[in-house]
Amino acid sequence: MLEDDSGRIRLVGNALKDHFLVTGCIIAVMGTENANGDFEVIDLKIADLAPQPDRWSVSKRPSNGAAKTKVKDEDVDMTSRGQPSKKIAIVSGLEFSGSNTSYTMELNLLLEFLLGEALDSTAQSELANISRLIIAGNSIAKPADPTDTTTGDKKAHKKYGYDASSYNQLPSQLLDTFLSTLLPTMPVTLLPGILDPANASYPQQPIHPAMFPQARTYASLPGAAAASSEPGWFDPVTNPWEGEVEGWRVLGTGGQNLDDVCKYVDSDDRLGMMEAMCRWRCSAPTAPDTLCKPSPFPPPVLSHFPSPSIQSPSPRTK
Known about the structure:
With about 325 residues, the protein is an alpha/beta fold. The chain contains six helices and 13 strands. Helix 6 (about 270-280) links the parallel strand 12 (about 265) and strand 13.
């Protein structure tokens, strides 16, 4: 379905089989209207991958905004200089909980792995090349439903549906301890997720440093991050987040945008969907139709991946 200010028209044609599209993609099509009132597509064009800046071009730009003077051999790979290449570690879904202890062993093994305490010397030398750990959302588990009646205990009805006495601070304390143990060894970038204590709407603001009394000692001072291009060792960021790691430009999300796209396609190729969003130059194509305001009804699976253009279940209004 193609939509603009003048109206909507259905897209058909064999040219669509070579492209994966979902609602919200901005495309250019060439074709003609057939006898059925559909638009027969002959050719289709998307924005495709954007040109990327040179390495270190963002963080090392002069304060006056002028173009940076490139130093000789600045962008040469570190391995060609006899130095080991840096790595980025990415984890998500830690889901620290105050009641469920089934993942305690896995979290302890992860901590020992990142610290190099449970590995041989060869693996430890590899882990020493990790320049930053990125925690991509859902670091704290979903709290238990206070209205759950399976235990037989009747909960008192609250005026606004929230019981302050039932707040459990243990998950955030466990996450704070986890981060403070890692931070002397490697920098950490923390993105919020749908389960984390941040605003529920997308995009999300960073998790407030007050949630981490131990880890926030490694964060930049208020106002210092704006004056300096280098983030602190503890860096709570927005979701989505654009930053720079070892001079390379990085775009990261907590996964809500990808989960919402997966509702409308019958495929498990999430890496291919992430590549498609980079080629569309749109990290949240389904917003604001379903991403920012969850529907109480589960959306149907509409097609296979890759697939022709998919009609939006909730058309946009101009």
